[in-house]
Amino acid sequence: MSKPQTAVEPTDITDKKLAAIRQTSPELANTLESFLALRHTARPELPPSDKPATAQIIQLPLWPEPVRGAPNTLLRSAFFAAIHSKKRQKLGIQTTPEAEPEGIIIAAQNGDTIKYAGTQLNQYDADVFFEALHRARYHPLETECFFRGYDFLKAIGRSDSKLNYQDLHQSLDRLRRCNVQIEWKIKGRHYEFNGGLIAYYEREKNSKLYKVTFAKKICNLFAPACWTQLEWQERMALKSKPLAQWLHSFYSSHAAPFPLSTAYLHNKCGNTRHLLKNFHTDLKCALATLETVLGWKATWNGDLITIDRPPTTSQARHIRGTRPRNKSYGSRAEGQRPV
User: Fold this and answer.
1) Which residue from 285, 245, 37 is spatially nearest to 125, judged by alpha carbons?
2) Tens digit of pLDDT for each residue in 162-192?
3) Cβ atoms of 271 and 278 closer than 8 Å
4) What is the structure's pLDDT at 251?
């Protein structure tokens, strides 16, 4: 009867042991010999360019639940106009029947450039955009964000009626179809964004499940010092009051805003009033709403308006670290930039 073979660790094989194994089991010795030859064959290293790159996960900032992150360059411009939905217009220049419409200049804070082509966006579209960003912030950009229509409508202060579902669908479609070009500079750095605000959008009619994807480039709008945390309950308390909502967003994006003229605000908010005196009436009404609902105080000095409101915690830190400046924005506000 042959002796049982003992287990042999391949890493512990010597020539003497291999010869001994060959006497009892030539087949096993050949296998081990082939394995040892393979182990000692040096593997060629891949050139640096062929090495697999580590995937970088790009996400939006993780702001708290009670607020919504919003890019300053959009809050301080006529991008989300202070108009009711029935006042929307088609924006863009059609150079040839075959070409896509070219974007037109949107009124923005001095130093920022915004070109836009598509159906005009208003404060309802801002509600939808900010809430969609809020739900996508936990997901890597360019991946799908899922949400139920009922939950989303509730978050933006709307019921789940058929008309509100239709409005939501149309707003998401506007945000997807629009062509946006934005350039801005802050703290010596130059940023830009090109494309639609939403890269992809889909809804399942039966389940009311929505799928939204944002492009990676959207993160440029949330670079350091380029975005604001909007108090969402405050904004929802101003629902259906587009000028009051625009003023809330605009002033929320400034830690210590300068006095501003009626003409400056008229230009930046995208209001359709052609006569400044008519806008002046609308502005007084909107400021009264801010005082009644939020306790903000507006002080007039001639045509200049100063808003007194409590700053957020981060804005208070900014104010403490900034030297006081005595400036105002009157009729020549277009050449100046509030901070």
Assistant:
1) 245
2) 999 999 999 999 999 999 999 999 988 999 9
3) no
4) 96
What is the SS3 assignment for 197? coil
Between strands 90-91 and 104-106, the pairing is unpaired
Q: Which pTM does this prediction carry?
A: 0.77
For the chain, the average pLDDT equals 85
Positive or negative, the Cα torsion across 160, 165, 167, 169?
Answer: positive
CB 172 within 8 Å of CB 126 = no
Query: Taking the chain, what is the end-to-end CA distance rounded to the nearest angstrom?
Result: 95
Q: How far apart are CA 36 and CA 9, in angstroms?
A: 11
- Rounded (5°) CA angle 39-40-41: 95
E strand intervals along the chain? 67-71, 80-81, 90-91, 104-106, 113-119, 121-122, 145-148, 179-186, 189-195, 200-204, 209-213, 227-231, 260-261, 297-301, 304-308
For β-strands 121-122 and 80-81, DSSP reports them as parallel
- 91: helix, strand or coil: strand
Domain residue spans in the chain? Answer: 67-335
Give the tens place of pLDDT for each residue, 70-79.
Answer: 999 999 999 9
